[in-house]
Structures are given as C-alpha cells and as structure tokens.
Design a protein that fits this description.
CATH architecture: Roll
Number of strands: 5
CATH class: Alpha Beta
Number of helices: 3
Radius of gyration: 13 Å
C-alpha cells in the first residue's frame, strides 16, 4: 500500500481529505504510483503530468524520505520506506515568484 499526500487543490479536485492510499501493480515507481492515482481519481489526469508526454508538470514536485525525487527517472524504484508504507510519497505544488 503506497501512501500519497496531495496538495490542497488536488485533494479538493479529487474530493479526498488527507492522505490517499493506493495499491500499485508491480514495482513502485513514480510512473506506477501516478498511473494508479489517475486510475482511481480520473479527475486528476493532466494535473500532475501532461496528457500526451506524461512528463511532470513544471510546478509540481515529488518528495519522499526527505529527498526531492522530481528529477528522477519515472521508472526508478521509489525508496523502500515508501514501498513499505512507513513514509508517504508527497506531490507538492511548487511556488515561483520574484
């Protein structure tokens, strides 16, 4: 069971409170977690990654175990603590400004 923490605006869009738990088929990677998340909450399709390219949106970041995983390959395995459910996979909306 993978625990996923969504930013407030995506929780509101998906009509969920707090953390989301997902069953992920096969190896737990960013791609498999996002596939499972979008399958369970189809209203999130296109909000975290592009519909066509499946690339992470520019102002979205992924974190787990106090590490920024945003620039990791989508098929790289997630940390063991995330796979075991002891740590969540965070999807964060980044903020830019000047």
């Amino acid at each position: 069971m993978i625990r996923v923490m969504l930013p407030a605006h995506l929780r509101a869009l998906a009509h969920v409170d707090g953390e989301v738990t997902l069953d992920v088929e096969g190896e737990a990677t960013q791609r498999s977690v996002l596939d499972a998340l979008e399958a369970r909450y189809p209203m999130l399709r296109g909000t975290i990654r592009d519909h066509v390219t499946q690339q992470r949106r520019p102002f979205v970041r992924f974190f787990a175990c106090e590490q920024d995983l945003s620039h990791e390959q989508p098929d790289a395995p997630l940390p063991d603590a995330v796979v075991m459910g002891t740590e969540p996979f965070f999807i964060i909306g980044a903020i830019a400004g000047g």
